[in-house]
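Propose amino acids for all 47 sites.
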């Protein structure tokens, strides 16, 4: 597994836990723009 720098300026894919919507952005969106659900960084493991 590789280490991911959460402060990176690189664009990162985020996925919504509720609706599965995926957005690619430089900053963590916090909440899904579609349904308001929680987002996760897809480059980080779910463990």
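Proposal:
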């Amino acid at each position: 597994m590789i280490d991911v720098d959460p402060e990176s300026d690189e664009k990162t894919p985020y996925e919504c836990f509720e609706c599965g919507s995926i957005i690619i952005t430089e900053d963590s969106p916090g909440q899904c723009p579609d349904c308001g659900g929680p987002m996760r960084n897809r480059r980080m493991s779910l463990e």
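The chain has a mean pLDDT of 84. Residues 6 and 28 are 9 Å apart (CA to CA).
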